[in-house]
Amino acid sequence: MELQMRIRIFAIFAQLVFLLGFLSSTVCIEESKFSCRESERVALLEFKGGLRDPHSLLSSWEGGDCCNWRGVSCNNETKHVVSIDLGYRQLFDGPSTTWRLSGEIKVSLLGLKYLNYLDFSYNDFGGIDIPEFIGSIRGLSYLNLSNAGFSGRIPPQLGNLSSLRYLDLNSFYSLHTLYTDDLEWLPRLSSLRFLDMNSVNLARIDDWFRAINMIRSLSALYLPNCLLKAMPAFLSFHNLTSLVTLDLSNNQFNSRIPNWLFNMSNLEYLNLQFNHFQGSIPDTFANLTSFETIKLGKNELVGPIPRSIRKLCSLRVLDLSSNNITDDVSALAEISSGCARDSLEVLNFRGNNLAGILSDWLEKLKKLIFLDLGNNLLQGSIPASIGNIPTLRNLFLNHNMLNGTLPESIGQLSDLTVLDVSYNSLTGIVSEVHFHRLSKLAHLSLGSNSFLMNMSSEWEPPFSLKLIGLLGLQAGAEISSMAAEKQREYNVLDLSCAEINDTAPDWIWNYLHHIFLLDLSHNQITGEVPGRLKYASMEHIDLSFNKFEGALPALPASIEYIDFSSNSFSGSISPLLGQPMLIFSHLFISDNLLNGTIPASLCHYSEMFAIDLSGNFLSGELPECLADFTSLSSLDLGNNKLHGEIPSSMGTFSWLQVLHLNNNSFHGELPMALSSCTRLVAFDVSDNKLSGEMPTWIGESLPFLKILRLRSNMFYGSIPREISLLTSLQILDLAGNNLSGTIPCSLGNMTAMALTHKPNERILAVFQRGIGSVLDNYGPSGYSESLFLVIKGRLLEYSKNLQYVASIDVSDNNLSGNLPHELFNLHGLQNLNFSGNNLTGKIPENIGQLELLESLDLSRNNIFGSIPASLSLLTYLSHLNLSHNKLSGRIPTGHQLQTLDDPSIYIGNPGLCGPPLEECKGNETYSTKLPVEDDEFDSEMLGFYIGIILGFVSGFWAIWGILLFSESIRYAYFQFIDRWLYPS
């Protein structure tokens, strides 16, 4: 009985224990189902307290269940917070990029012990440092701080995140700069697979690759825009066997492409754009057996294409665009003869120097989808066999020297969507046969050829074009039929350079409701723009270089890009800027007849990228509200009647790359606030009334400057040595001021002027459309820099070739001292003008090193001595002025100097002789009346003393030699001495 009682009590106790356990687990399940960990909730709230969230993006961060808060994720079982995703792209649902989180990042995040995912990307933390304590969140496998407004040194504590697989520190779109002076922390990230450090300043690191090479797991590496300069030529080993993607574009490599880059067997994507690589492509391309993409665009590769390229058996995309490859195009036949012919889909050699004639090797590339050989030196005809590539969708052969007719076989390419053969010398008839099976054709570009379009009036095009590019074709009614009557869905219409010299055809204005881009530029179109333009739906309009007149037209609300430059529009710009709802980003109205002031309403469009109002009659002062243009990249207000001081508010233009205020009446000093415009490439305030000393901050704070023009102002003082820090400077124009002192020798350090082979890219390449784009020849290209420079004694305009100009002009100042011989190490100089100063000394002998010099003006100085013979070695010299100095001696002859036979080159130098002046007399080489330099004086004195000694010796032996060897003369001589000393 007692035993049964004990058993019953035990059973009841067990049931109670089970019931309590069940209730406890139920409570825990219910709690875990509806709530996160309290300690982590508190940590998140404390973290939120450090943020500034003016638009309440984190309004859901309240209550007890933090797992349901916006951007927070928890483990489904443990309810520990494992992810915080506050990236701007995740949170953003507002109308403006101002909807971003800012503030500080609280250390309370360390309370989230199980956090493995952290994303703060595309917010704006206002330039604060990356918190060091992030390196203590050991469980992180994903960290994204890209473009979040961090600045300063990357904390090496990030190297403690041994579980990290993804690290993104991309700063390309940030206003703040990250940097690091060592990468020793990187190899400790032993699990890292993805690393993006785009636009992180790595300029201080020479051995950057050694650290990268120790991360065996790395699959994707992005280091563009990092100011990298050195790349190892050889490696004893490399660990990057898992690397699939490598992006080293837009750096400062200036060497041959190292072979080890092509020993990475798994590499699929390689981007080396925008560097200065030299030499031929390494033969080790043959080792890339699984290579899928090669991009070496925008470098300076030179030399032939290696024949081993045919061994790239898995090659799908080959992009060597925008280099300096100088091979014959027939070398590409090696690809079609190798195993790559069965895999290659993209072949892009745009923007090189490929020459020769296309042949039938192209038809062997049976899988080719994209072919771009544009912007080369190809000649001959387009082979008819090109119609035998059934997969071809994009064909770019534009900007070459092709001739002959357009082969009718192109009409067989049923998949073709883009056909661009513009800017060649093609002739012949273009008929419906050329478009027979092109039912998918969307972009047609035939402009700048000599085609005769001949379509039957009964023909129904099989395609519906989106882009019609007939630039320069005078096809009359055929254009009307092609563009309007048969094509009702086109959204790009280019009739530029079509020799329209009347009012614009009515059909152009009748279909504005579906046009995205309209280009009527470079015609002679007269009349006013019709008012119905206001009801169009277009985004881009280019009416430049015509004869449109009247007031500026009303514009559609959808407009973004406006180019009305070089017309006869008159009146104020206020009505245009007073239209509500406009959102345009580019405004070009230069060279018209506009007057009045720049209205404050301009500032309603503060998100504009480019403004060009130059060449008008605008007056008044600049509005203070210009400070609101924080995204502005180019501002050109030159050649107007503006006055006042340059406002300090312009220092807010942190993205500004072009500033032209030339030929106005601005006065005062250059505001130091402009030193904040650190991205400036072109800075032109010439022909104003500015004064003060030339600022040192120009050299210290504007590292990317390529054009500096301060001419024709009232600047005084010396040329600051800091100018020599501008190693990218190509044009320095300080003429017509009151500068004094000597010319700094350090100007010889401006390395961009020493380059004899300059990069083949525009001064402002960043504003140009993308290479290989479908719209490569059409529509807006953004602001294009052009300058009027005084070269060869004349005012010359440079635009398309401006990137090749290297010039120094310090004429008409009060500079003194010698010509620094260091300046003549700038071998790439084309123009050198020191005229109208007080320079002395001799012309340096090394002047013959300026092999590209076209114009040299040293006139109106006090330079003396002879003209160096090396001057005759300057084979490009076409303008020379050495007049009104104190030069002497015979004028050198030979080579280029023989063609410069104008005597006025040498007038005002009375000591010069020889053609084209009077012949020299005898063997005279200089006039003794001219002052001589110290070393010349020393030489003459030495000769004088030697003459005295020789005269003494000669006189001594002339007398004592006779007395010694003639007894009668010696007897008579001493008798004479005795009678003279002792007269009787």
TrEMBL record:
A GO cellular component annotation in the UniProt record: plasma membrane
Keywords: Cell membrane, Glycoprotein, Leucine-rich repeat, Membrane, Receptor, Repeat, Signal, Transmembrane, Transmembrane helix
Residues making up the signal peptide according to the UniProt record: 1-28
Highest taxon above the source species: Eukaryota
Record-linked SMART domains: LRR_TYP
A single GO BP: detection of stimulus
Subcellular location(s) per record: Cell membrane
Transmembrane portions of the chain: 942-965
Membrane topology: Single-pass type I membrane protein
Residue ranges constituting the Leucine-rich repeat-containing N-terminal plant-type domain according to the UniProt record: 39-75
Family membership: Belongs to the RLP family.
PANTHER family to which the protein is assigned, alphabetical: LRR RECEPTOR-LIKE KINASE, RECEPTOR LIKE PROTEIN 30-LIKE
Name of the protein in its database record: Leucine-rich repeat-containing N-terminal plant-type domain-containing protein
Species for this entry: Dioscorea zingiberensis
